[in-house]
Amino acid sequence: MKKEKVDLKTDIGGIELKNPVMTASGTFGYGSEYDDTIDLNRLGAIVVKGLSLEASPGNPPPRVVETASGMLNAIGLENVGIKRFIKEKLPFLQTLQSPTIVNIYGKSVEDYIELASQIDDIEDISGIEVNISCPNVKAGGVAFGVEPIAAYNVVNGVREKTSKPVMVKLTPNVTDITEIAKSVEDAGADSVSLVNTLTGMAIDIDTRKPILANITGGLSGPAIKPVALRMVWQVAQKINIPVIGIGGIMTAEDALEFLIAGASAIQVGTANFVNPKSTIDILDGIINYLEEKNIPSIRDLIGCMEV
Amino acid sequence: MLQEKVEILWNKEVGGLYYRLGLKCDEGFADTKPGQFVMVRISDSYNPLLRRPFSIHRLIEENGNVRGFEILFKVVGKGTTILSGLREGGFVDVLGPLGRGFVIPENFQSTFIVAGGIGVAPLFFLASDLMRAGVDSSKIQMFIGGRSKEDLLCIDEIKAMGFPVHISTDDGSLGEKALVTEIVKNKLTNTRPDMIFACGPSPMMKAVAGIAEKENISCQVSLETMMACGMGACLGCAVEKKESSDKYLHTCLDGPVFDAAILKI
Q: N or C: which end of chain B has fewer CB within 10 A?
């Protein structure tokens, strides 16, 4: 393990992380999937696959397709449900030093509220990421993330039921993401994470059919990074709670761009598929950068962009 | 499971669009089972971005030690085009071995091994493993089909294993002019194996699974699906289970070799 001489601690709204490198929900399973490949204890936090009240089978295949410098997915939030998660998946996560953040999604405001209450008294869950941005489920998900009042209602409901830090994951598929960000801040969110995937599609020109069974899917990977970075910068200007940057982060350089733009931490998503050691490589790269530039603390970097 | 940049020992064109890629890997592959696969990152570029799954075609051994493995691949798109251009001494990033391979039942009486096109890749490994385990060659019959004679691979090596090999092509350019599944069906009228192992394109897998079900013969199929991670994180490689239309298995962890009876294919 690399000796960390620089101060990497960062506050993401009620949770102080030992470093800013988190995993993005939906790209890291329930953590144990990566136990063979990396030292999970080095991660700033682990955000698990989006959970619903009941187990969900997800969408029919094909669910993924590669596009230029990116991929489309329409997994449809396949998950084991909150009860099985707590019983079967959480015990492993509890053995780790890295905090666990649980991503939740519902079909109604009541679902979100119920999920939050079930999680609230579990000590080893450090925070909740409220997913109001999945583009691949028919009911709920993104429906709450594209409209400021609907977003407010979900987050307000969750806020009333939990004392845990509440992070809200935002969709880029809106006219003005800062409006949604302000709305969830008003509703009591402790932080916002952005962006979720951009809705896209791909067509097989021989069969003239969509490649994904769901027709549309969410675009992720390096292709979306400039868009995500712009949105993180815009949101960071407009709200007073921490912003977590997500979107096509493949390298330490990508992560540093997000931090400089105003993100207090970052989440690594699609890169986990390409290189399962991405999170650790990114963390080591950030440390090297700080050391080489004689920057004592990561906090000196957050939002330091000069225009 | 290992993730490592490994050296290319050879990358030989074996006719048409097919290549044999030998990769040096001194550790991690000694216990590889036929049917398991690797995810290969073909270049450091973002385009193509994702790794590509390939079944392990054979292990490379030296003095009884496994020192690498070979994949047999067909050029079908951007990733495999780049892969076909890589040369001895170059490197690719490998993740594996992954997934569940073929399960060989104890004391089986006889088997049909059914390959379609590039589907021969893991079945060659399976057949050599069976022969190596001392299985009597009279217990095995292999069926190899393809569109045309260029699509039939490893024929001489497989014939040299000593069991009957039935060859067919869609265009009649080699062996019988028929679908491999038709040859299997005909053979079943006078021979009844207690296990069918199959790998090939989706329509063929469907046909083989259908034949096995009708004849009440156990059948294991190796499937290919699009996947991003190969290790159970992305959940992209879903395949539908038979008993309930809303439940899925995943090619990377539950497969790529499945008992055909549990799948809706």
A: N
For B75-87, write each residue's pLDDT tens digit. Answer: 999 999 999 999 9
Per-residue HEC secondary structure of chain B comes to CEEEEEEEEEEEECCCCEEEEEEECCCCCCCCCCCCEEEEECCCCCCCCCCEEEECCEEEEECCEEEEEEEEEECCCHHHHHHHCCCCCCEEEEEEEECECCCCCCCCCCEEEEEEHHHHHHHHHHHHHHHHCCCCHHHEEEEEEECCHHHCCCHHHHHCCCCCEEEEECCCCCCEECCHHHHHHHHCCCCCCCEEEEECCHHHHHHHHHHHHHHCCEEEEECCCCCCCCCCCCCCCEEEECCCCCCEEECCCCCEEEEHHHECC
Q: Which pLDDT belongs to residue A3? A: 55
Domains of chain B, each with CATH number or no CATH: 2-98 (2.40.30.10), 111-262 (3.40.50.80)
Measured CA to CA, the distance from residue B147 to residue B150 in angstroms comes to 8
Q: Determine contact: A39 vs chain B, CB below 8 A.
A: no
Under a CB-based contact definition with an 8 Å cutoff, are residues B202 and B119 in contact? no
What distances in angstroms separate CA B241 from CA A187, B134, B178, B251, B263, one per listed residue? 42, 35, 30, 12, 4
Find, in chain A, the residue whose alpha carbon is nearest to that of B77: A66
The answer to whether the complex's ipTM is over 0.90 is yes
Tell me which residue in B1, B47, B225 faces A68 most closely, judged by beta carbons: B47
Residue A270 φ/ψ, nearest 5 degrees: -55, -30
The half-sphere exposure of A42 on its side-chain side, counting CA atoms within 13 A, is 18
| Residue A285 forms contact with B (CB below 8 Å) | no
Can you give the pTM of this predicted structure? Answer: 0.95
Domains of chain A, CATH where assigned:
10-59+76-201+218-300 (3.20.20.70)
